[in-house]
């Protein structure tokens, strides 16, 4: 018999966890589909999917089955050996995308770290060691390793951690002229999110994405797309680049890739991959059989017309409900995004209230996200039932009303 489990509460967090997070006051213990229950048994509707991670909802039967089956087969071998789930998952990602080669890691930051290292290594071995400049964008988010926070465009995440990696330039997002002003023959890569997630749910424009591709071709630089948040169906297509008809040289995926099990991938072409040789890069857990088995099951479900084609209808429900709230409360200045990555920016007179609305929503039994201080962000399960959208939006309306018109 299992030993009695020690009692822990939200208070325990403040005593034992490094204070880099400020979690909600409730502790979720169970999830099914788009519903979550806390320690007190209170029910929440989940419009967050754990920041665009549990794209098939909580405890999807196909993922639970894959985890259980692999859990009784083989957990880990190291990269001294390869394994079947990793080879199957890589083959399927290649079939579904521009890619010809895959590198597995464990988090978005690690996939991006691999991407930035590959871009520099490729340039230094094929062109010149001085071809090291990386062009990135204001408000971009690429993860929390020192290299990825440095390429990210939010100084609050990198301040205090210097000295930082050098030769990284930031320019405004969606501003092609600004890129033209800094790109040169020493540029090895442009790194961009097709939809900035943490930076406020900002989609790139068609002209911008096309222009970046042209500039990369002109200067023999690589186009690196960070699809950690926008990928795996989130935008309504498997990867957001497929909306633009613009092929990347390197693409990173994480978050929804494992549907809640930690895994990430960097995708690239044969030509670029051929710069690498054994020992140049690696990671202990990358391609772990458990992670790859779950990710393979997630990909098999997500990359089907029945899931991808249902996203637009769900998006419409979200937009209609947000517009109805707006008609009543005059809360938002803009509702934007693609697919089921939706941002609602607060009107100037409500600036700074995103966190208050998030907290009020939790009290009403709804989990939502913010992106910065002025944007509400919604990233629900891609298969969220329409009824859950309706119920959740009723809870959001009550929460917003309480914040704007306190009793
Ligand atoms: C979340 C995120 C990352 C970082 O992923 P981690 O798994 O937290 O390391 C990188 N890029 C984008 C666009 C993200 O949204």
UniProtKB/TrEMBL annotation:
GO biological process: L-arginine biosynthetic process; lysine biosynthetic process via diaminopimelate
Organism, scientific name: Pantoea alhagi
PROSITE patterns found in the cross-reference section: AA_TRANSFER_CLASS_3
PANTHER family: ACETYLORNITHINE_SUCCINYLDIAMINOPIMELATE AMINOTRANSFERASE (PTHR11986:SF122), AMINOTRANSFERASE CLASS III (PTHR11986)
Reaction catalyzed: N-succinyl-(2S,6S)-2,6-diaminopimelate + 2-oxoglutarate = (S)-2-succinylamino-6-oxoheptanedioate + L-glutamate; N(2)-acetyl-L-ornithine + 2-oxoglutarate = N-acetyl-L-glutamate 5-semialdehyde + L-glutamate
UniProt: N(2)-acetyl-L-ornithine binding residues: 144, 283
Top class in the EC scheme: transferase
Pathway as given in its UniProt record: Amino-acid biosynthesis; L-lysine biosynthesis via DAP pathway; LL-2,6-diaminopimelate from (S)-tetrahydrodipicolinate (succinylase route): step 2/3; Amino-acid biosynthesis; L-arginine biosynthesis; N(2)-acetyl-L-ornithine from L-glutamate: step 4/4
Any single GO CC term annotated in Swiss-Prot or TrEMBL for this entry: cytoplasm
Gene3D superfamilies assigned: Aspartate Aminotransferase, domain 1, Type I PLP-dependent aspartate aminotransferase-like (Major domain)
Modified positions (N6-(pyridoxal phosphate)lysine) in chain numbering: 255
Broad class of the protein's primary localization: cytoplasm
Name listed for the protein in its UniProt record: Acetylornithine/succinyldiaminopimelate aminotransferase
EC number annotated for this UniProt entry: 2.6.1.11, 2.6.1.17
Binding residues for pyridoxal 5'-phosphate: 108-109, 141, 226-229, 284
Localization per record: Cytoplasm
CDD domains reported in the protein's UniProt record: OAT_like
Keywords of this entry: Amino-acid biosynthesis, Aminotransferase, Arginine biosynthesis, Cytoplasm, Lysine biosynthesis, Pyridoxal phosphate, Transferase
The organism's taxonomic lineage, starting at the top: Bacteria, Pseudomonadati, Pseudomonadota, Gammaproteobacteria, Enterobacterales
Stored InterPro entries: Ac/SucOrn_transaminase_bac, AcOrn/SuccOrn_fam, Aminotrans_3, Aminotrans_3_PPA_site, Class-III_PLP-dep_AT, PyrdxlP-dep_Trfase, PyrdxlP-dep_Trfase_major, PyrdxlP-dep_Trfase_small
Family to which the UniProt record says this protein belongs: Belongs to the class-III pyridoxal-phosphate-dependent aminotransferase family. ArgD subfamily.
Cofactor(s) needed for function: pyridoxal 5'-phosphate
GO molecular function: identical protein binding; N2-acetyl-L-ornithine:2-oxoglutarate 5-aminotransferase activity; pyridoxal phosphate binding; succinyldiaminopimelate transaminase activity
Function: Involved in both the arginine and lysine biosynthetic pathways.
Pfam families in alphabetical order: Aminotran_3
Subunit structure: Homodimer.
Cofactor, free-text remark: Binds 1 pyridoxal phosphate per subunit.
């Amino acid at each position: 018999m299992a030993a009695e489990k020690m009692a822990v509460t939200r208070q325990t967090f403040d005593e034992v966890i490094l204070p880099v997070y400020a979690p909600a006051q409730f502790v979720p213990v169970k999830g099914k589909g788009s519903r979550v229950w806390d320690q007190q048994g209170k029910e929440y509707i989940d419009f967050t999917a754990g920041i665009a991670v549990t794209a098939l909802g909580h405890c999807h039967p196909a993922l639970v089955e894959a985890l259980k089956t692999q859990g009784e087969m083989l957990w880990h071998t190291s990269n001294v050996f390869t394994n079947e789930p990793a080879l199957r998952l890589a083959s399927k990602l290649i079939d579904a995308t521009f890619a010809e080669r895959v590198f597995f890691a464990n988090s978005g930051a690690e996939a991006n770290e691999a991407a930035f290292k590959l871009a520099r290594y490729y340039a230094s071995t094929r062109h010149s060691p001085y071809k090291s400049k990386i062009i990135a964008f204001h408000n971009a988010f690429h993860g929390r390793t020192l290299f990825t926070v440095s390429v990210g465009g939010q100084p609050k995440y990198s301040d205090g951690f210097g000295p930082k990696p050098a030769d990284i330039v930031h320019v405004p997002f969606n501003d092609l002229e600004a890129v033209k002003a800094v790109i040169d023959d020493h540029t090895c890569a442009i790194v961009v999110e097709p939809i900035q997630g943490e930076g406020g749910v900002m989609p790139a424009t068609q002209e911008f994405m096309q222009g970046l591709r042209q500039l990369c071709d002109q200067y023999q630089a690589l186009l690196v797309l960070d699809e950690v948040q926008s990928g795996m169906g989130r935008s309504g297509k498997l990867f957001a680049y497929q909306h633009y008809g613009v092929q990347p040289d390197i693409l990173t995926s994480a978050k929804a890739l494992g549907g809640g099990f930690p895994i990430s991938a960097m995708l690239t072409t044969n030509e670029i991959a051929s710069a690498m040789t054994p020992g140049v890069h690696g990671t202990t857990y990358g391609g772990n059989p458990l992670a790859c088995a779950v990710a393979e099951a997630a990909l098999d479900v997500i990359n089907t017309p029945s899931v991808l084609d249902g996203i637009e209808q769900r998006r419409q429900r979200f937009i209609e409900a947000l517009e109805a709230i707006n008609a009543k409360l005059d809360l938002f200045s803009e509702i934007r995004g693609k697919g089921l990555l939706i941002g609602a920016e607060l009107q100037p007179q409500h600036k700074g209230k995103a966190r208050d609305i998030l907290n009020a929503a939790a009290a009403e039994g709804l989990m939502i996200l913010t992106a910065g201080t002025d944007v509400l962000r919604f990233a629900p399960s891609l298969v969220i039932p329409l009824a859950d959208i309706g119920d959740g939006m009723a809870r959001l309306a009550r929460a917003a009303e309480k914040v704007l018109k306190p009793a």
